[in-house]
Design brief:
Layout lengths: L3 H33 L5 H15 L2 E10 L4 E8 L2 E7 L4 H9 L3 E3 L11 H6 L6 E7 L5 E10 L6 H60 L3 H16 L4 E6 L6 E7 L3 H4 L3 E2 L4 H9 L3 E3 L10 H7 L6 E3 L9
Antiparallel strand pairs: 1-2, 1-6, 2-3, 4-5, 5-6, 7-8, 8-9, 10-11
């Protein structure tokens, strides 16, 4: 028969164990609070929430479902073996679906005794679900945006106090998730605006160049002046280092440099390209534009011209020039 001293010692150990568990819960709650305010990345946020909720609730595992506003389905990603799989539940499907539909918590001692429980995942993984606590995640407007579910309390069943605690955690998590979604939405819209702005600015630059070329064509007194003006403005529009205009001999098809700007223009103008040779010769012969971003890897590139001129292009944009009759 245990003495009073033994009973006191056992009671002291039990109380110490309770205090230790409550302290662990408090630390986990503090960690969750800090974690929720530390990132706006949705994936990282969900991982932080789930890691700590299982510890706080003294549960085997936890799952966080989010509501897909386009399909009205709940979705979540879970780890099965080494693969991450997505779970999707239709409105009212399973325990989590029922909670999402009603907006009310479910606290079940034995999931297999509830007709709404879907044991498909248990059968697929070999896991055995016993006690289950599901609570809705509601935003500041009271709208359900997801469900938090915890499974299999380590000792006994989930209590009313557990339900209140998980509800508070879910509400806190909902605010952070909404903030993350809002942040991502704003970033996405800003990116779209920037892309639109860049496209508009590019179009304006192109129109400016065309307008300037028209002015040059109207004011130039000599052909060389006209060609040099056109090349200078084309370089600015394409952000190029150098540009040239080559004309084909009507009889031989050989190309000569009629105008050149940037690089080594004086040397370039003395060069001639045989018909069909080099990238320019290919474009003249085939009548199709060419974009070559790695000139040194293109077999058509006339390396001897680069060596003689002393200018080595890295990329080339080459387009055919046609007269009004198409030649």
């Amino acid at each position: 028969m245990a003495s009073d001293g033994d009973r006191d010692s056992q009671e002291a150990l039990r109380l110490q164990s309770v205090v230790d568990r409550e302290r662990a819960k408090l630390r986990a709650l503090q960690d969750i609070s800090s974690a929720l305010g530390s990132t706006l990345d949705l994936g990282e946020l969900l991982e932080m929430i789930l890691d700590r909720i299982s510890e706080v609730m003294e549960a085997d595992r936890s799952t966080l479902y989010l509501l897909d506003e386009e399909t009205d389905e709940l979705w979540s990603k879970v780890l099965q073996g080494e693969e991450v799989q997505e779970i999707r539940l239709k409105p009212g499907e399973g325990l989590a679906g029922a909670v999402a539909s009603t907006g009310k918590p479910l606290n079940i001692k034995d999931a297999y005794q509830d007709v709404r429980f879907d044991a498909t995942w248990d059968r697929a993984t070999g896991y055995r679900t016993r006690s289950t606590l599901c609570v809705p995640m509601k935003n500041q407007h009271g709208r359900t945006i997801g469900v938090v579910q915890v499974l299999n309390k380590h000792e006994g069943h989930f209590t009313v106090a557990d339900e209140a605690l998980l509800t508070a955690l879910a509400s806190h998590a909902a605010v952070s998730i909404e903030n993350s979604k809002l942040f991502l939405s704003v970033v996405g819209k800003n990116i779209e605006l920037l892309e639109t702005k860049e496209q508009l600015e590019k179009k304006i630059r192109e129109l400016d160049v065309l307008f300037e070329i028209t002015q040059v064509a109207a004011s130039a007194m000599e052909l060389d002046e006209l060609l040099a003006g056109v090349l200078a403005r084309t370089m600015r529009a394409t952000d190029a280092e150098a540009a040239s205009i080559l004309l084909a001999d009507q009889h031989t098809g050989d190309l000569t440099f009629r105008a050149a700007v940037g690089g080594e223009p004086d040397r370039v103008k003395k060069m001639k390209i045989k018909a069909g040779q080099g990238i320019s010769g290919w474009v003249a012969e085939n009548g199709r534009p060419q974009i070559v971003n790695r000139v040194d890897e293109d077999p058509r590139h006339s390396t001897h011209i680069s060596e003689e001129v002393g200018y080595h292009p890295k990329s080339v944009l080459c387009v055919p020039l046609r007269w009004d009759d198409g030649a």
